[in-house]
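ok posting inputs for the FE2/S2 (inorganic) cluster job
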Amino acid sequence: MSIYRKHVFVCTSGKHCPQAGGEEVLKCLRAEIASRGLKEEIRINKSGCLDQCGNGPMVVVYPDAIWYARVKPSDCQEIVESHLIGDKPVERLLLDHRGKLV
Ligand code: FES
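and the output
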């Protein structure tokens, strides 16, 4: 097994992300990857709290160390196509660009 080209962590626990839709974001990202046959090179994992409670659902992409805040299921296709496939992060969702939202 090779190392994943992109490894994505979606917060699905803690005080905020589950209520904000973390599981739905996880499912839609996994579905987008599976439908494109990319499961061998792009991995979507659940994560515990990322200490950004209140900004979630939080999504982090490695090896890029890109943090997305307040991700919605409707953002999943763009994250996959622009960032995970195209290597161009979705700037409007970046935690840094959205400021401290908490
Ligand atoms: S609950 Fe998701 S960052 Fe803390």
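notes: The longest helix spans residues 22-35. DSSP finds four helices and four strands in the chain.
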